[in-house]
Every structure is written in C-alpha cells, then in structure tokens.
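Why does residue order matter? Because the sequence determines the fold. Keep that principle in mind as you read this record.
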Amino acid sequence: MMDRTPSEQRGTVLCQTCGARNPDDREYCALCHQKLLVLSGPFAQESEEEFEDEGEENFSFDEHLLERISILEEALKRTTESLRQLYGALHKQERTILVNQTGLGALRELLAEKGALGEDEWTERWESKMGYQLLALEQRERFLAIKDRVAALCRGDRRREFVAHLDDADHALAGFEVERAMAALEAAHRLDRGNYELAWFLGETRFNEGDGAAALGYFARVLEARPNHYEGLVYSGVLEHERGAGERAESLLKRAVALYPDAFLPNFSLGAIYSARGDLARAVVYLERAAAAEAVPQALYLLGRAYHEMGRLAPAIKRLREAVRLDPTFEEAHHLLGLTYLDRRWNRKALTAFREAQRLNPKRLRYQDLVRYLSGSAGSPLPVVDGAAAAQVARAEEALTAGEPQRAFERYRRALALAPDHPTLLISGALVALQLDRGAEVEAMARKVLAQEPGEMLRATAGAALIEALRGQGRLREGNTVGRRLLEDSATPFGQTLACYEIACNLAEMEEDLDGALDYARRAVELAPEELKGFPLAALGWVHYKRSEFSRAVGFLDRAAELAPSSSTFTHLGMALLAAGEEERARAALERARGLEEAGGLGRTMLQCMKDSTRLHDRVRSRGGG
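Structure:
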C-alpha cells in the first residue's frame, strides 16, 4: 500500500450546520461561519474498514445488544442522579429567592414606616430597573446567538483586539450595562467595517431604539457586503422612505420582492409606499400579496383604505372587517369602516363603527398645548434641566419635532436615569408616554411628580395626565377620585379647568351621571383660559351627544373644532351630525378627522410592523434570508 501524503493524512471537519468539508485545523466553517463540532477523517474511515474486515463468525449480535443495554442503563443512572441534583439545587434556589423577597419586603415596610420612602417610589424604581435589565438580557441573548459568526467573519492582524471588544460587550451585557456594550461593539465595528453580521446587529438595535439615521448607516454596510441580505434590504427601504428618499426606497424594496416574492415585509412596505403616493392600483397588488403571505391587521387596513379611495366599497368593507376581527382595538380601521359604511348609506352600521372607534380613543387633551401654556403664558416656567440630562432633553425635543415620540421617550428615559427626581423630566416623559399609550409609565411618573408637592401648574398637569392614564386602563372611578382631589386643591382657573374637564369626560364615558357630567363640563368652559377653551367645549358637546341632545352637541363641537382642531373632536362632530340626520356634513367632518389622524400615520403603520420583533424574526427565520 502506498504511503499517504501529508495532505491526505490530514483529517476533515464536517460542519454540523451546512455539511461543508473543512480542514481539521479550522475552528469555524469557511462557508457558514458556524463553530465546527462534528469530526470525520481518515481515522474514522480506517475504523470502518477494520470493522468491515472482521468476520461475521466473530460477531455476536446478542452480545452487542447486551453491551448496548448496559451502556444505556449506566447513562440513565447518571441522568437520574443529575436530575436529582438539579432538583435539589432548584429547591435551594427557590428558598433563597423567598428569603430575599421577604427581606426586601420587610425593608420596604420599615423605610415606609420611618418616612424615608414614598408610597410608590419602591415599586416605580423596581419596575424601572427591571425593565432596563430585561432589555439588557434580551440584547445579550441576541448577541450570543451571533457572537461566533461575528468572530468568524473577522480576519486580519487586529482580530485579537476585535474579539476582545466582543468579550467586553458580552461582559457588559451580563452586567446589564447596555450603553457600555454598545460602545464596545461600535469599537469592534470600526476595526472591521466589512463584518456584516455585526453591522446588522448594531443596525437592528439602533432601529429598535428609534435612531433611524444611525441604523441606516449600519444597514448600508450590510448591503455592501451582502447585496441580497433580506433584512438589510427591507429595513433600508423603509428607512429611506422615512427620510424622503422615495426612489432609493422603491429600488431596495423591489429588489427584496424580486428575491423573496412570497415574503410579507417587502410586499407590505412597497404597497404602503405606493399607497402614500396615490398609486393605488400598484399598491393593491403588493398589499394583496402581503395579506396572502400573512393576515396582519395593518396590511389589511392599508388594503381596505386603498380600495375605499378607489371607490371599490365591497372589497374595502371585506378587508376592514377582517382587520377589526383580527385586532378589535384597531381604532383607525373602525373609523375607516364607518366611513365606508357611510358611503354605502348604511348609517346605523356606520354609527356603530364610529362609536367603537371613539371608545378606543376617548377624548384627550393635547398636552403639548398644556406644556406650552405652562412654560409661557402661565408665567410659571418648568424647572430648568442642566448637565448631561439637558443634552438628552434636546435630543428628545428634536425627535418630537420630527414626529418620533418613541425615540423622544427613550431620550427622556435616559435623562431620568441621570436625574430620576427632576419634575420637568418626569412630567415631559409622562406626556410623551401618554401619547404612546404607555399608561403604566404615565401613572408612575405622574404620581412621582405629585409626591413632590409641586407648584399649582405642575400639580394640575400631572393630575390630569394621571387621570388620562387611568381612563385608558378603564379605571374611571379612580380617575374621578383623583380629579375631585385636584379640584379641591387647585386655587387657579388652570387647575380647576383641568379637573372639571377630566371629571366631565369620565362621567360621560360612564354614562351613569350625565347631569353631573354636564355641570362639570359647563364649569370647565367658564373657568378655562382662552388658550385652552376648545377642550372643555368639546367635552360639553360630547356630553350633550350622550344625552341625545344632538343639535346642542353639534353647536359646541363646531366651536371646539374651530378653536382646537383634532381627530377626536371632528369624529365626535361627525357622529353628532350623523345622529342629527346631516349626512353630508357628517361625512365631511369624519373625513377631516381621518386626515388629521393619518398625518404621518402611514410611516407609523410601517414601523409598527417592522418593530414587532417576534413576528419579524419568525418571518426572517422561515425565509432563511441573509
């Protein structure tokens, strides 16, 4: 037999993921970059040859079975022992957690009794820290899933430094230090800008934080290395559309559709862009494909809207009904369904749909008007924020100006981490959280402001925000208790107006004491400063609607819509007009409501789908895209 050459003597490693052959001195697969674990080579082949050369007469099948059974019995015994040890450890851990929880509870009670801790401060701080740590834990799980692939892609002289940054990020996430972890990963990316796995992770993280500009830069790096990267194409297309680069967005999404014709996201995003442009025929084609791939309520809503604008009422009603069936809390879909019913002259069904939309979005003050009044004409400016927190506030205000409340809220949270008790940060964060329907966080921040015994203006605004949050959670009676306390403690028309307004809105929703609601609404109108007069007028009109006094309702709601035009006010006006038999005026008011609601709403609808991370990752993994 000829001697084997050195190259023939070297073994091979079969990748357990893709099956590619690799030299046995490699740590990662050259094809898919997964860590190599399954070994195969000349030794294994020679062992098989020796086994085949053994004579059948020397092989006892019974002895082989007995040997296998003995091995399995030993394995089962060891497994049973391991399970017993795990159970014991779990029991000890359970007792430890119970002891720690009891100790913390006792400490909380003791601090509260000594007056060193407010009623809700412990819970608020606990929930805040827990949310931050859960975010860090989620980030670490995502990072660990790709860490080996990221390391395998790195080549060159600086690989050791690159891996050190990855390890530093891992340790930071294990210690719940998200900012330090991101700084380490960004430093690693600067060493290897062609590492598309790392660029994708950073881009996705920045996207979820609401920092679209930074995310787009990372996705561009992904596409430089992998032009057909599924997520890179879709995310980049949506972000390019957000920043107004329509042609670039269309090009990226068309490429994604061509590569993944049955995927939901590229078809949905492209259909949404065509819908925004008014190219309804093409929008319907892509939205139908998206709905066929996955029945997502947002896609069905956009599809129904396109059909409605094309005058095709039957398919519009079908798609909108499906959307509200899948998501009964989809306010915009209920509203548009009402408009479509109205076009078909199905007035009773239309009124039912509008009532459902109104129930899901009860009348709310526009709190940016309150803050403007509070900081300006009230002569009682908010306490100044300085230091590092001021930079976060500036970025939050930029995000609000750009119509990105989620990013603004994240900035306020970072500012609060630096100055957790600052009343300006608390009230500003609460008002943005209210805009995002994050009732629990609104409640925590508002109660914290109230616990500080602030001045009249801050107390009134925090109290009103708290009542709004409680109303959103269906806690109307509790909200009225807060409102009556606020009314008793208020010495200025500003605070009294807010208290009377909120109580009137709650009583109108409860429909138990409409006479009382009418009295509170009238008092709010009488007390309101001119800058805020539109809101109590809208509440007064809505109370008259609830009392079936439709002509009076129309009069007050008309005045409210002139002073403070909002989607909610025009919706109420349209419902009152419809109930009064004025169909054409009702249609005009409801269309105006829809126009105000949808200003910027398309982008929010697209981003809502993009940020549904569980559904997104399921779709991505099922595509196998990358």
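The chain is about 75% helix and 0% strand.
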